[in-house]
Amino acid sequence: MNARTLGQPLDRVDGPLKVSGRARYAAEHPADDLLHGSVICSVIARGRITAIDASAALALPGVKLVLSHLNRPPMAQDDESYEDDDAADGSPFRPLFNERIRYSGQPVALVVADTLELARHAGSLVRISYEQQPHATDLREALSAAHAAPAELPKPRGDADGVIAGAPVRLELEYELPCEYHHPMEPHASTVIYQADGSLLVHDKTQGPQNSQRYLAEVLKLEPDRVRIKSSFVGGAFGSGLRPQYQLPLAAMAALKLQQSVRVTLTRQQMFTFGYRPRAVQHLQLGADENGKLQGLVHEVIAQTSRFEDFTEHVAEWSGMLYHCDHVRLAYRLAPLDVYTPLDMRAPGAATGVYALESAMDELAWAAGVDPVQLRLTNYAETNQNEGKPYSSKELRACYQQGADAFGWSKRSPQPRSMREGDQLIGYGMATGVWEAMQMPASARASFSADGRLIVASATCDIGPGTATVMTQIAADVLGLEPSQVEFRLGDSSLPQAPLQGGSFTVSSVGSAVREACLALAEKLCEAARQWPEAPFSDGAALRFSAGRVQQGEDASRAVELSALLARHGSLEAEVQAQPGKQRERYASASHSAVFVEVQVDEALGTVRVTRVVSAIAAGRVINPKTARSQILGGVVWGIGMALHEEAMIDHDLGRCMNHNLADYHVPVHADIGAIEVIFVEENDSIINPLGSKGVGEIGIVGVAAAVANAVYHATGKRIRQLPITLDKLL
Asked: Coiled-coil stretches, from where to where (predicted)?
């Protein structure tokens, strides 16, 4: 493999379509006689529906259907049919299954009409009566009812509690994070096109077309080949599209019942009626010697879940692997509430757990009188003690060094409240980030069209990181082509198998499959050329395909052009499934980062502004630095929002999120963001996969919230352990 395209900052191959408006998203695909659906959601948190009066809505001309549990098409009766590739343990939610209400905002009916405006108006006329039951939605009041999570935590090592009790430096700390909701630019939507033969062609907002296809076929008892899911373009997802959301089965049920195409688009308010990053309370105990060397560590987590599923994340595990410590105890419990099941949200578990760990490490640094960077070097882990394995590669020390140098960490005055500019208190903070580097089985198909264009295909999708672009680069690199000669097809359940797009494993998984498919295609081309009687090759000579020709070694005079091969043999193709290499099993693999943050805090008002961020990332081989940098920038912005802005305000009397819009649910805007510098630290990893890539989608957010919180402490001398850090908490 040459390095002509890998590692180069290639522009997005789908960029022109997106900026010109020619890229069609789930709610933009046309269909003849398309109907529109509007979802009606429950106004109570627990109970049952006693009556539905849809007469006024159905009396309106153009209203076709009010769909509810009373008149829905047949649905599967067993839990297994509703489980998907990202399902939690328990009994998955079944839209419109029966009269039972499990959470506020639950979909209870769908109004279908000729226009969206009419459907929404008709929805306001539907009268639903409820029998309300007592509910509980406050995690704090449910802590004592928490049960052990069905997660495989590392076994305790050593005697953490005993060692901490006798340590020279001891800390006992508690941190809390609120619920946070996914808010991609594109709300969830499904356009179900009812075909003449009764099959369904669905344009869906999803991170896994094949996952949605299997789910829909199982739930509605359809033959799988009667359902095709396409997600050609996805306007962001961040985990919200990992599981099929309720607009998909609702639109499909309406289409089947009416035998007509139906589109259902959720409102921004309804984006608050399904998955979210769960509220969590974390309790940490640290014991260290006088120099800050960890002797014992305890990390206990209680997070909320629904009453019908046990949603689990890797929250506490990072505390057992990020730093060397021989005495560690980790615990993770869940508190069931009358809420919808939480859902993976960018860097699930790590964004939560590492915030608490890295805040606690900063507090340890102050308690021991040690520089925060030096404290982390003192406790540097050469191996993953959770797994008892060495790392396939780890350049975290270089992240600390390069990040600190670029940031100017050495200019930091150690004492809190010792740096200022006028009435602005200046604070410096830092934190470590980590994310597991994974690879899943994936398939890809490669072929040449009649005009010599390379067509590569896989059922993966692109939620924004630039998947189509990096797959184009990988394919072009393998076969020695220009990226303009390659077309990557994705977002279609009928294409070769691919995992969900999430967890930062798409490049390592699908990219490895693309690489192997292109290598297999090259071998087929060489074999076809070898069998051509007129080919100018020596007997038994080694052949290779590159730059549009099969040639003998480096001898360009002994070659057969691709156009001639295609004219003789027609289209040639190869399809392969890539599996993680066996050698990976002997190693732990992770991306790492060091995040440095400067804040300004107004001494009189308590307002916080992040003025500078430096994020140094070690993530193996970076296929496209341009799109990778964008991923880190987005993660940093999100981490700033996590620290200072985001919070779902729950009215526990109603069991409902009250700030369910983007005016009241605060996220960072341009005015909130200062300079962000991204450094990709060189990291060579020949073990993790043939590409040497670890992925960057998640690592950008991990540690950012802690770095901001640590900087606020340095600026003010006040430690805020409950996110977000708002001015009322600082004043």
From this structure: none
